[in-house]
Amino acid sequence: MGLFISSPAQAASGFRAVDITGADGVVLKATVIAPSTAGRHPAVVLPSSWGLNDLEYLAQAKKLAGRGYVVVSYTPRGWWLSGGEIDTAGPKDMADLTKVIDWTVANTVADPDRIGAAGISYGAGISLLGAAFDSRIRAVGVLSGWTDLVQSLYADSTRHRQSAGLLELAAQLVGRPSAELTANMADFNAGRDVADVMNWAAVRSASTYLDKINANRPAVLIANGWGDTFFPPNQLVDFYGKLTTPKRLELRPGDHAIAELTGVLGLPNEVWTSLYSWLDQNLAVAPTSTGSVFLKPLNAAAETYPTWSAQTTSLRRYGLGRIRGLDGTGLLGGAVSTGWTRKLPTDADTLASGGLVLITNGAAAITGQQPSVWLPFVDRGRAGVWASERSSTVQRIRGVPAVHLELSGTEATGTVVAYLYDLDLVGNAKLITHAPASWLTSTGKVDLRLPATAYDLPAGHSLTLVVDTVDPLHYEENPSGKTITIGGGSYVDVPLR
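^ that's the sequence the OP posted. Answer follows.
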């Protein structure tokens, strides 16, 4: 990617704290740092993350200013010392972002034709949404952000307990939740008025405004973690595929905001380096970027593709078979079979687990080791387990695996959780990807897209599916003391390269 800034490093002026008046008179706290050289410069606006303030980006603001950017980071309304109440990336936050850009153009040496917006998590969501409402935003950096808040809360009709709870706690500790936010979170936690909560979330989803974003044509960089427990990658993959703007998608190991963390601390960081290049390229007078996909698999070297679909060259269907012998494990593989059933209790957890929000997948990114269980300890009285024959070659899983389960005799509401594991010769099973699926009206089947992944299943290992009914990461919709019956006709589709 070519640089348009004349020198690799420029002197930056010291940062200064400022007050910026928001859309309805609310005062937003902000910091500004700019190059000390004369002339107009490209600018980057950085809204802070949920629960943090504008000082979050101080280290990166200095680096960006040294590269020739005017940097304005600000604390969105309702947080810390900024006025107002939390709007959760709603219409007031969009109006505030426009006011921040107005202020930047009027009070700094920013070039009004070269404005970018970027951030982590909440700042990422505000930046991307803002690009639908303010056409001056020419480049966007979406780092651990969301594109569909409805999916973040209710993916496959399952409420995400731990991630939503942590966001709610942060709002109570260092923010001022609006009555609207408080009411919607209360309804979410109680499992009531789902349609109303979804409507509230849709207003705060970039996917709702995709046509506007495409019409404004900002260059959009999306970077996220495979194991993000707040905003799992499928919504980002789907959104990326529908973008017609200059675009780039990057996925790496880790949980929410883990990949960017060392950069926030001022240390060298691959995600922030990628953002520098993206801004350098797309805030030029004539941007040249088109589309590309960068993947860092969970256990393999980094790969780049021209499109998301280019990584997948085949789709293999693994039929679920009858439970065999003393170990209570069925065959995963071969033709889809019939004539068998597997009954699971609804209120019994197993060792199969997605872990703890932020911690489990965050630690995996740092250590390079996926969370694992010893498969013989997964209680076959509480879970269905199916293992494939051991392949003599590496199986390169690339894309979005899907699970189809045929159900019989189910209650009106229910939840299952599917885990895809890499099982070695001695029983150690490493988690590749997992997700829950719920139903709120009677159903005879479950079709579940597991979160996208990139994983090399080693030769001699077995691809293994575990299905149970409880995972502490999520609310479950199962009535107590009942059962769920999985039967013939069930299968797993695995994308391979």
